[in-house]
Amino acid sequence: MKSSFYKQTIALAGILQAAELVEQLANTGNADLDSFTTSLGSILKTNPGTIEEVYNGQVNFMPGLELGFSALREVLEQKNKQGSQRLRYAIGLIHLQGRLQNNQELLDILGSRLDQMQSRLDHFELTHERSIASLASIYEDTLSTFRYRIQVTGNAMHLQNPLVVNKIRSVLLAGIRSAMLWRQVGGKRWHFIFYRKKLLATLNSIV
User: Fold this and answer.
1) What global pTM score does this model have?
2) What is the Cα–Cα distance from 195 to 71, expressed in whole angstroms?
3) What string of H, E and C letters represents the secondary structure of the chain?
4) Domain ranges, ordered by start, for the chain
5) Which CATH class, in words, describes the domain spanning 4-206?
6) What is the pLDDT of residues 23-66, one digit of tens each?
7) CB-based contact 139:172 (threshold 8 Å)
8) Whole-angstrom Cα distance, residue 132 to residue 43?
9) 152: left (phi over 0), alpha (psi -120 to 50) or beta
10) Are the CB atoms for 159 and 77 separated by under 8 Å?
11) Pair 84, 14: CB distance under 8 Å
C-alpha cells in the first residue's frame, strides 16, 4: 500500500501542472497538449480505483503528469523565481478549493454540471472548443462566484482571447480537482513548509 506522502505528491503534481499550464496559456496562448489533455481528463475522474488513474497512469508511471512533477520539483527546490508564480497559483487553488468544500450548494451544482458534461462527451472530445467552453462555464458559475479569485497575469493579447481565457478557466478547474484530491489524501497547506524535504524525497522516488 502506497504511503500518504506518495499520494499527496501525485496530487500536488496535479495542482502544479494546472498552475504551469495557466502560466503557459497566459504568456504564450498555448499549452503542452499531453499535459493539458491529462489535466482536463482528471476533472471527470470522480470515482477512480487508484490515484494514478486520475491522471491516466499507473504506479510510478504517469507520463501525462511529467509537467506537473517538473514544476513541483522547481517549487520544492526553490531554484528560480518562475517557480514562485506557480506556487502562488497553486496556493490560490488550494485556498479556493477550501472555500468550495464548505459550500454544499456549489458542490452540488458542480457535481450536476460535471455529470451533464460527461454525458455530452459522446458528441465532442474533451479538448474540443465546445467542451473547453463548457468546463470554463462551470468554473465561472461556481468558483468565480467567491470573493477570492485567482489573479492570472501574462500577455494582455492572450488574456483577451476568449479561447485562451476558456482554456485557463478549464485548467483552473482541473487544479481545483487536484486540490480536492490532495485534501482527501491528507494534504495540508503547511506541508509546503515543514514537509518540503519529505515531499522532494517522495518525488525523487516517483520520477
Assistant:
1) 0.95
2) 17
3) CCCHHHHHHHHHHHHHHHHHHHHHHHHHCCCCHHHHHHHHHHHCCCCCCCCHHHHCCECCECHHHHHHHHHHHHHHHCCCCHHHHHHHHHHHHHHHHHHHHCCHHHHHHHHHHHHHHHHHCCCCCCCCHHHHHHHHHHHHHHHHHCCCCCCCCCCHHHHCCHHHHHHHHHHHHHHHHHHHHHHHCCCCCCHHHHCHHHHHHHHHHHC
4) 4-206
5) mainly alpha
6) 999 999 999 999 999 999 999 998 899 999 999 988 878 999 99
7) yes
8) 12
9) beta
10) no
11) no
Contacts of 91 (CB under 8 A, 6+ apart): 189, 192
The whole-angstrom separation of Cα 6 and Cα 205 is 9
Phi, then psi, of 203 in degrees rounded to 5: -60, -40
